[in-house]
Amino acid sequence: MTRSPAPHLARQAALPALIIAAVIVTVVVPQFFPADGGPTGLDNSLDGHIHSSFDAHQWLYRVLVAPSNNYIAIPLQLGAALRFAYRRQWWATGFMIIGPEVAIMVNSFALKPFWDRQLHHYLAYPSGHTVQLVAIVTALALVSESTRARVTIVVVMAVVLPVVLVGMVGMGYHHPTDVIGGTAAAIAMASALYLPWRYFTHTPPPPR
Known about the structure:
Oligomer: single chain
Number of helices: 8
Strand order of the largest sheet: 1-2
Strand content: under 5%
């Protein structure tokens, strides 16, 4: 009995669809920014709820924002790369190192200046710390061969991101929409980089 190609085609289409959806979110969110780049209505609403709920425990913000800091994100990235290197999965090792770094650079030197959303003394959209964390986690999910591992990574990230958002807003580092846009931008960039990386590292050289 011949296996239907439908599931395979669906899997092939899933990643491009995810990239398109993430790009749309990244582009649409800034359309709601005021002319001065200040908070949107959603930002003000979430900001009010967060501060009224947690301002009595300021220390909690520092705990909640911790997963986005370099001392968490970088060891996660390097640890994953070393794990794949130990298993001699060199294509995965390379992507874990290069993929997130490219996403971070594109965000810092292209997306942030393009949207030019000022907060305090820096450009806030998309959130750089969010892009770093989400790009690393997205890269890890993409190169993981186990479906169970990918699902677990996605579920954990879905729990961690709202926590980080609360911490960033509470500390005054970002508006909520900076984090939302950073998440979408990181997913779009890491996934878009993964497609050619996977193709070229898995395509055998032509016969001579």
